[in-house]
Amino acid sequence: MDSNMTFRIDSEVKAQMAAICDALGMSTSTAFNIFANAFVRAKGMPFAVTIQEPVTAVSREKMLADTDQLLSEFASDYKRMAE
């Protein structure tokens, strides 16, 4: 038996979802049904729900320093490949 659900969604997200569903040849109702079935099969979210640490100035600086270090370590290899 079918039943209805009512919930709020951001209008921009709704429009983007509708456009993607249209491109896939399905309705938003079909997309939500696919999600609901995946949710039931997984007995929870069918994808990881995590809290990601924000990129901070310190972590960005470390990331850039690590990148510089890696590039320096492999500079000779890059030079050899270019020859």
TrEMBL record:
Keywords: Toxin-antitoxin system. One of its GO terms (biological process) is DNA-templated transcription. It holds the Pfam family RelB. InterPro entries: Arc_rbn_hlx_hlx, RelB/DinJ. Belongs to the RelB/DinJ antitoxin family. This is Type II toxin-antitoxin system RelB/DinJ family antitoxin. It comes from Flintibacter faecis.
